[in-house]
Design goal:
11 helices; 12 strands; Arc Repressor Mutant, subunit A; 2 domains; 7-stranded mixed sheet; alpha+beta
Length: 292
């Protein structure tokens, strides 16, 4: 049993879940020794639109409880539940704050992170409407959501499951009239905003830039820039054992360490020291495998 007891209180174990844009699966901060993940290889034609597709299986003992601190990556995700719960496909909108999720029992599912290039086209709604929301995919797709979820759940193997998912997403993109060129322009816009480029440098007015970011990212330009800066800091922390917080703050564009600490607490819901302690507390890391 992985709970700590003190007096009469029972405290569930805690862990982080972090997956940054570009990670094939859970980052090294995620200590989940009983979990098994498989990162699906996204076909070339869908790579501009899908940031990550990940199968997750984990079974906890009957009396085990884990509080998972899910750190924000800014992505819109589709979740296809493959456990015995019978829940339908869901959409998880972008967030700027950590979530606490209580884990127990058997968990299995397929998580798909959509890039800003295609999130609006796949979902059929501006991403700003999904910010901070968790809703059934059927609220956006109608019966087509349940149909795709059923076909994924009934797939004979992981390869067939992946093919079913890819075909379903291609249909949504075709239906939306998605243009690869438009998708690339959206990705370039997101990258330029993350670098702190001014609207006139991008060739847009301030109001139009705000509209595009809200529509495709669900965030304001300033929020997106702050989140990407924090992600850069987290990547740097993966490479150092004893971080110099003041130097890291300046290297990533904060005025000083105090401003960095403020943003860190806002995004992670904890101090950098608490984050570091929780990130290395697990005895082993998640087993990650790639599959075609």
């Amino acid at each position: 049993m992985n709970e700590r007891r003190g007096n009469d209180a029972v405290f569930p174990a805690r862990r982080l879940f972090l997956s940054l844009p570009g990670d094939a699966g859970p980052g090294p901060e995620t200590a989940a020794p009983r979990a098994r993940t498989r990162a699906l290889r996204v076909p070339p034609d869908l790579r501009p639109t899908i940031g990550q597709a990940l199968m997750w299986h984990e079974s906890l003992q009957a009396d085990d409880r884990i509080v998972e601190h899910v750190l924000p990556d800014g992505a819109v995700r589709l979740w296809f539940d493959l456990s015995d719960s019978g829940a339908g496909p869901m959409v998880l909108g972008p967030r700027l704050e950590a979530q606490k999720v209580l884990l127990q029992g058997r968990m299995a599912g397929l998580s798909v992170a959509l890039t800003p290039a295609a999130a609006r086209a796949v979902l059929g709604a501006p991403v700003r409407q999904l910010r901070g929301q968790v809703l059934w995919l059927s609220e956006l797709w109608g019966p087509a959501a349940g149909d795709l979820g059923d076909r994924i759940a009934e797939a004979a193997d992981l390869g067939q499951m992946a093919d079913t998912l890819w075909d379903g997403l291609r249909q949504r993109l075709r239906r939306a009239g998605f243009s690869t060129d438009d998708g690339r322009r959206t990705l370039h816009l997101a990258a330029a905003v993350a670098r702190g480029e001014r609207p006139e440098w991008i060739g847009l007015g301030e109001r139009r830039l705000q509209q595009l970011c809200a529509e495709h990212l669900g965030l304001s330009p300033r929020e997106h820039r702050r989140l990407m800066r924090w992600h850069g800091l987290l990547r740097s922390l993966r490479r150092v054992d004893r971080p110099d917080w003041a130097a890291l703050a300046l290297a990533h564009g904060w005025y000083d360490q105090a401003h960095m600490l403020r943003d860190f607490r806002a995004f992670a819901g904890m101090t950098p020291t608490a984050f570091r302690a929780l990130a290395v507390s697990g005895p082993s890391k998640t087993a990650l495998h790639k599959t075609g």
